[in-house]
């Protein structure tokens, strides 16, 4: 069996499962946030009763992150709904905006907090829950109804996905990053190329990636339609997890002879920096082929491109230089924000590098303009802006305005573009 | 889940890769679907993310839609896990989507909520229909018929989720099989 099949088998009490089986799977962690939490709670209370208790308080994690820095009254009401539920249920893992416990973007915070452990199952009311497969967990996005069901029942009916294996070997060239790898893959298999499948990433290039970078790869599995993205855990994973939690876990691994639906192989040493042009993540083009595209805004943030490693990449290019266009920096979490102050390149902190380069005042952690959001959201587009962004989706209207054009890119390419004002291959600055 | 096995009315025709930001833009995700007033409001914003060249979907004065059937191409509902997407369609009065294929979470949310029937067509229908054509879906027979000329198009069998659809959604199904208390 594959790692995905093994986790689902163990959590459903079956010895063996096969792709296509419909099985009841125990939930290890249920993750929700301010946009889908209130509706999930509403369904839970409607279906299980006003006095119902959640299936396991230790397994519910609530990380508000979407609409935090806004004057929108309903957004505030929704966080209040979460607060009331947390109090009533006595939930220990609630990271309340406006308090010291606030973290920021849920998919960067969840592993930071030690809630992601190899071999476990994670269900989250957000499509980018697939991020957490980077640590060897089965992790997938669900809707409010399924989440409301889990809150009461602790399990969910899941169809076992077939696995697509991506073998990435070779040494990553300078200025190429995990974001380029996943944009290459999505561009090759298309936005529905992995529909209903598990995407398993392996190979020497994956082994060499940091945890942040592995998260970038699994984060965008859903952009190819996948149910989950997953990377087998290794010593790097165990060190990361063990530094953040004392909870025991049992990792699982694919059998060498595990059956997969298809295998795709890449020699990453031959790949070049790419962007995804408007309005789909599979609309791949070489960054060099887009140098005529003038840009109004560069956005570096989100669960895809707002981690510490993303800002280190951007800072390497921006150090000692000035940006030519409006450049927005949104650290995903408080931990990343602190990292901007603590991480130095030749004695200068990332924050100092960005500020000297002339970026906009660095925003507090949240999802911000990645998905548009309320009208007063930081960085939201309002007109015909052309944006290069380290985020995950470039759909029409994704960052606010239906008329703006979003190019998805790596932190290197985004930073290079910020310096020149037109789409720029990071090897050319 | 709408229990009718016959769905009749004008169709609203879309294309491939209709994403959840088109179905319900994120600025409306402050609305909570389990609050009845906000559920109705979500319906009035269904497909509000489409470019302005498309006719308004929820075009009735009360915020509902004149189009109970939506026709799409491949990968309908791609993107976010926001359940607001099938809910907005259902709240607007859509009964069914007929597409060549679906994104996983949208399909699942449609089935789990029972808001709309996510039906798959055997062939590509985007070019066969234009918005406003009168059509009839016969769920039991698995057909979509264009009423102007009687031409009938086959729908794919629903497959493994049939019992969940038949029960009327995830909770009804789980109660039926004894997974949770009645």
Structure, explained:
The complex is a heterodimer of chains A (429) and B (182). Chain A has 14 helices and 19 strands. With 429 residues, chain A is α/β, with parallel strands linked by helices. Chain A folds into two domains: 251 residues, 2-Layer Sandwich (Aconitase, domain 3); 153 residues, Aconitase, domain 3 (2-Layer Sandwich), CATH 3.30.499. The model of chain A has no long low-confidence stretch (mean pLDDT 98). Chain B is α/β, with parallel strands linked by helices. Chain B has a single domain, classed as Aconitase, domain 4 (Alpha-Beta Barrel). The model of chain B has no long low-confidence stretch (mean pLDDT 95). Classes of the chains: A alpha/beta (429), B alpha/beta (182). The interface between A and B is large, with 56 and 45 residues.
Write the layout of secondary structure elements.
The complex is a heterodimer of chains A (429) and B (182).
Chain A: H1 3-12, E1 22-26, E2 29-32, H2 37-48, E3 60-62, H3 73-89, E4 93-94, H4 106-112, E5 121-124, E6 138-141, H5 144-153, E7 155-159, E8 163-169, H6 178-189, E9 198-202, H7 204-208, H8 211-219, E10 228-231, H9 235-242, E11 262-267, E12 274-276, E13 284-286, E14 297-301, H10 302-305, H11 308-318, E15 326-330, H12 334-342, E16 344-345, E17 348-349, H13 350-357, E18 386-389, E19 405-408, H14 411-420
Parallel strand pairs in A: 2-3, 2-5, 3-4, 5-6, 8-9, 8-11, 9-10, 14-15, 14-18, 18-19
Antiparallel strand pairs in A: 1-7, 12-13, 16-17
Chain B: E1 6-13, H1 20-23, H2 36-44, E2 69-71, H3 84-92, E3 96-99, H4 104-113, E4 117-120, E5 134-138, E6 143-146, E7 152-154, H5 162-167, H6 170-176
Helix pairs in contact in B: 2-3
Produce a short descriptive summary.
Chain A is of the alpha/beta class and 429 residues long. Chain A has 14 helices and 19 strands.
Features:
heterodimer, A: 429 residues, alpha/beta, Aconitase, domain 3, 2 domains, five-stranded parallel sheet, four-stranded parallel sheet, 14 helices, 19 strands, 31% helix, B: 182 residues, Aconitase, domain 4, seven-stranded mixed sheet, 6 helices, 7 strands, 25% helix, globular
């Amino acid at each position: 069996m594959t790692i995905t099949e093994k986790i689902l088998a163990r959590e459903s009490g079956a010895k063996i499962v096969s792709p296509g089986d419909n099985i009841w799977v125990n939930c290890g962690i249920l993750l929700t946030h301010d946009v889908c939490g209130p509706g999930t709670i509403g369904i839970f209370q409607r279906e299980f009763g006003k006095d119902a208790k959640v299936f396991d308080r230790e397994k519910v994690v609530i990380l508000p992150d979407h609409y935090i820095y806004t004057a929108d009254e309903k957004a505030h009401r929704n966080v209040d709904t979460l607060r009331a539920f947390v109090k009533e249920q006595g939930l220990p893992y609630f990271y309340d905006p406006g308090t010291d416990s606030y973290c920021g973007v849920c998919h960067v915070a969840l592993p930071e907090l030690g809630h992601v452990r190899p071999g476990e199952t994670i269900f989250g009311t957000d499509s980018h829950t697939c991020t957490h497969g980077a640590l060897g967990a089965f992790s997938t996005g669900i809707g409010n109804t399924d989440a409301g069901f889990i809150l009461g029942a602790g399990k969910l009916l899941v169809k076992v996905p077939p696995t697509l294996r991506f073998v990435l070997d070779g040494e990553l060239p300078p200025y190429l990053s995990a974001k380029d790898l996943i944009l290459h893959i999505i561009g090759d298999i298309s936005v529905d190329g992995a529909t209903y499948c598990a995407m398993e990433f392996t190979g020497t290039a994956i082994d060499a990636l940091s945890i942040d970078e592995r998260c970038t790869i699994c984060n965008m599995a859903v952009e190819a339609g996948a149910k989950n993205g997953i990377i087998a855990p290794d010593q790097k994973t165990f060190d990361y997890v063990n530094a953040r939690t004392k909870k025991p876990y049992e990792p699982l691994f694919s059998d060498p002879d595990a059956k997969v639906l298809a295998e795709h192989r890449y020699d990453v040493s031959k790949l070049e920096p790419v962007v995804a042009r408007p309005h789909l993540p599979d609309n791949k083009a070489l960054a060099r082929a887009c140098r005529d595209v003038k840009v109004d805004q560069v956005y570096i943030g989100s669960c895809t491109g707002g981690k510490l490693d993303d800002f280190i990449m951007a800072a390497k290019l921006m150090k000692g230089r000035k940006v030519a266009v409006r450049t927005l920096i949104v650290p995903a979490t408080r931990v990343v924000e602190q990292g901007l102050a603590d991480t130095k390149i030749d004695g200068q902190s990332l924050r100092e590098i960005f500020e000297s380069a002339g970026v906009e005042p660095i925003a507090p952690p949240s999802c911000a303009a990645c998905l548009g959001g309320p009208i007063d959201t930081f960085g939201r587009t309002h007109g015909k802006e052309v944006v290069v962004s380290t985020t995950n989706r470039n759909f029409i209207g994704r960052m606010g305005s239906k008329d703006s054009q979003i190019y998805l890119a790596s932190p290197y390419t985004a930073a290079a573009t910020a310096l020149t004002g037109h789409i720029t291959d990071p090897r050319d600055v | 889940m709408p229990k009718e096995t016959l769905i009749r009315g004008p169709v609203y025709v879309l294309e491939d890769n209709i994403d959840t930001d088109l179905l319900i833009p994120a600025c409306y995700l402050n609305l909570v679907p389990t609050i009845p007033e906000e559920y109705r409001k979500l319906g009035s914003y269904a497909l509000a993310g489409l470019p302005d060249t498309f006719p308004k979907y929820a075009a009735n004065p009360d915020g509902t839609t004149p189009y109970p059937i939506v026709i799409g191409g491949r990968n309908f509902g791609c993107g976010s896990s926001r359940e607001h997407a099938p809910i907005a369609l259902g709240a607007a009065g859509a009964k069914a989507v007929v597409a060549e294929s679906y994104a996983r979470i949208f399909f699942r949310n449609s089935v789990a909520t029972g808001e709309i029937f996510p039906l798959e067509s055997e062939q590509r229908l985007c070019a066969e229909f234009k918005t406003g054509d009168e059509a009839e879906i016969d769920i039991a027979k698995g057909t979509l018929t264009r009423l102007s000329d009687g031409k009938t198009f086959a729908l794919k069998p629903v497959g493994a989720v049939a019992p969940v659809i038949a029960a009327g959604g995830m909770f009804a199904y789980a109660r039926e099989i004894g997974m949770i208390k009645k």
